[in-house]
Design brief:
Layout lengths: L2 H34 L4 H8 L1 H30 L2 H27 L1 H17 L8 H13 L14 H4 L5 E3 L16 E3 L22 H38 L13
Antiparallel strand pairs: 1-2
Helix pairs in contact: 1-3, 1-8, 2-3, 2-6, 3-4, 4-8
């Protein structure tokens, strides 16, 4: 390979690593978002499930490691250091294999994830306490109000809440209220309708709430976000593959190493 081709390969590898560094930062940022987000359904899962919290740390670790590898790749390419290119190639290959394995495992465990999601929400509904103020309850109220749904499978899921069903008047979750029937009032806790002598106890059939559950809408929302995540991961994998090929090509044509080119810190 001529010197001109080596130069082109070298700077192409540098540009790919620059893009790789940015994508690594995106993965790192996504992991941080999962950990600190308090205003979406992710917050409900994050406070109730250790697996999602562990997943966020995995994303952060992979993102940080990816950024480090791209930095080594940039130095190895620009300064033509064969040793760094070799280390870069090995670790890049390991990251690519890990991504494929993680994606395969996640695909086959999708059913378990959905089941765990349902269990988390149902436990939250059963233990919902209108006198307590915590982030998981507030987030679920926000989800129900914004998505315009009630409960997980249907509004009947709220009949499993002991505090709600112990009321002697028509009482319902405020965040579930159907705005076509009730226009004002709070969106957290439980709301009461004016007492009606013809209705005895808290009959769910008289609740002015959305009857549709949140399961399908929340899963659709997560599916959309998963599409973004998978898109980023596929983009990273393509860049990794190109980086591997370019690093092999460049490494094969570097016959001598000048370590004086490596920047000293």
């Amino acid at each position: 390979m001529g010197s001109a081709c080596i130069k082109v390969t070298k700077y192409f590898l540098f540009l790919f690593n620059l893009l790789f560094f940015i994508l690594g930062a995106v993965i790192l940022g996504f992991g941080v978002w999962i950990l600190v987000d308090k205003s979406s359904f992710i917050s409900v899962l994050q406070t109730s499930s250790n697996s999602l919290r562990v997943g966020s740390y995995v994303f952060m670790s992979v993102g940080a490691f990816t950024m480090l590898m791209s930095f080594l790749g940039c130095i190895g390419a620009v300064n033509e250091v064969r040793c760094l290119l070799g280390v870069y190639f090995v670790f890049l290959l390991l990251i690519l294999i890990a991504q494929v394995v993680a994606g395969t495992v996640f695909y086959f465990k999708t059913g378990e994830v959905k089941q765990e999601m349902g269990n988390i929400v149902m436990e939250l509904i059963r233990n919902y306490n209108s006198s307590h103020n915590n982030s998981a309850q507030n987030t679920w109220d926000y989800v129900q109000a914004q998505v315009q749904c009630c409960g997980w499978v249907s509004f009947q899921n709220w009949t499993e809440n002991a505090e709600l069903m112990s009321s002697t008047n028509i009482t319902y979750p405020c965040s579930c209220k159907d705005k076509k029937q009730v226009n004002d009032g709070p969106v957290m806790g439980f709301c009461q309708l004016p007492s009606n002598s013809t209705v005895i106890g808290n009959d769910p059939e008289y609740w002015p709430v959305y009857e549709e559950g949140c399961m399908e809408k929340v899963q659709a929302w997560l599916q959309e976000n998963m599409g973004v995540i998978l898109g980023v991961c596929v983009g990273v994998a393509v860049i990794e593959l190109l980086g591997i090929l370019l690093s092999i090509c460049l490494c094969r044509h570097i016959h001598s190493e000048d370590y004086s080119k490596v920047p000293k810190y």
